[in-house]
Amino acid sequence: MAEKIIGIDLGTTNSEVAVVENGRVTVVDIMPGHPILPSFVGLADDSSILVGEPAKNQYVLYPERTIKSIKRRMGSADQVELGDARYSPQEISAIILRQLKSVAEKHLGEPVHKAVITVPAYFSDAQRQATREAGEIAGLEVMRIINEPTAAALSYEANHQDHKKVLVYDLGGGTFDVSVVSIEDNVVEVLASHGNNQLGGDDFDAKIVTHLVDHLKNHGADPTTSRKAMARITRAAENAKIALSDQPYVRIEEEYLLDKGGMPVNLSTELARYDYEAMIAGYIDETLEAVHIALKGANLTVSDIDEVLLVGGATRTPVITERLEADLNLTVRAEVNPDLCVATGAAIQAGMLAGEDVSAVLVDITPYTFGTSALGERDGAFYPYQYVPIIHKNTPIPVTKSDVFYTVVDHQEQVKVDVYQGEDPDALNNIPLGEFMVENLSKAPANNPIVIQFALDLNGIMNVTAREKNTGLEKSIRIDNVLTRYEEGELQTARQRISRLFGGEEQIAGKTEDVSEHQRMVQARALVEKAERLLDKAAEDDREEIINLIEAIKDALSSNNLDALKEPTSALSEILFYLES
Ligand code: AMP
What we know:
By secondary structure, the chain is of the alpha+beta class. It has 14 helices and 26 strands.
């Protein structure tokens, strides 16, 4: 049998190693169940070398004997200090590569001598050469250095029969790159690349850190003078950011963060995804500008691109997909784990060099979108069955995602949660999978947040939970077989069946016309709430008009004058419709 060649993603923040076995790619676990090696090297108390997680852990306390982000220095003549010795960037990278080589050997049960290593598309000759040298120092013959976006494209299109042009949007911990990649016959080629090697998920963390520091300062404590406290806050910020990728709120708790006059200072606060997204909006704008620059560099426009592939852990931030879809109108693919797809592509390239037959990566994904319904707007009018997707199709499973919804009236005591499968913006055109009521809500004013969570496992079992955020009151249902329930043909039949149940299209549309007085008031309140949320987005002139309309609606509501409600609600609906579109 031919000698194995391993594929290595030598990243700024994290590194991974993957191998092809029986035509399939395995990203090798560094620790059981955990295939990611933080790109950290450190010296322990006893002067032994630490690599990966233990080095990352001690960075908090001993930054002076821990090295991170060595990739940024590759190709330079810089030396870094570690204990009493000084090392070149190649040597530090070699320590990481040795560790990866060794886990691969353990996994394969045989020695490994050859590797394919990935580098950013913008790496210069000197940087590529330094990477090659790092490999050699680690005892690896570097069979090929390939571009990260090429590797990412390979992980999606191992067989690349298609002729395609894709955008590879890669947002890691500390770097951002977008590349235009052409896939044609047997050639995968980077046509243009643009990015910012000082922008990444760490900057998102930094925004949260600033927010937390301000929060503490507002409470009379200044953590900035304590390195240890700042390190803990930074960790907490990253964890909060990661949590917000799957849920609408996160609690941030750090006990005994500081000592203030002999009294412990605890950090305890909550961050909403909505507020976090506002903090990072400027960064996302910057990445979208880079997309246009890269396209220009390739002499292409968005319409020449078939799809976007997401790479890098930070692309799990949902607003990134939302913005790419909304601003560029492109399909965004993320079914290959964005942390692992570069290593996967490197292994595919390595497998090909070793003469193996490598098929495309198989991952467990949901082929369907699942969501719920809420009061929303359709064509400028209120519609009570607006579909809100929670888990999107092609998401790797198992997966847990949640989003927040709000009650519409004061003292609302119950909410109904509907669970659907499908893509149609009108929930009634999707397949109903289940429903349940959450009762005995606290008698809160309108806009009482209810968090709805969908958890889908590999066996197709979906648990849907609704939780009143302020009280923790919870209700769940379990729905079995959601992944095998409907084949394509059945889907159409089911759709028709459901549509008949509601008496066909006309009647559904008619339903919104025939709303009760109560419903009209509910809708008006929801409209006001929405307008207040969108107020920041409005232009100066619109803003004034919106405020006037809100006032008019509030007056009409408080005097129970339904006739006076009609005009301002329809005017406000119209403005909001344009504001959102
Ligand atoms: P990479 O350099 O590709 O390994 O990406 C690392 C970055 O991704 C770090 O900033 C992580 O905090 C970030 N990251 C990892 N998982 C998530 C997640 N679920 N949501 C948002 N950011 C994440």
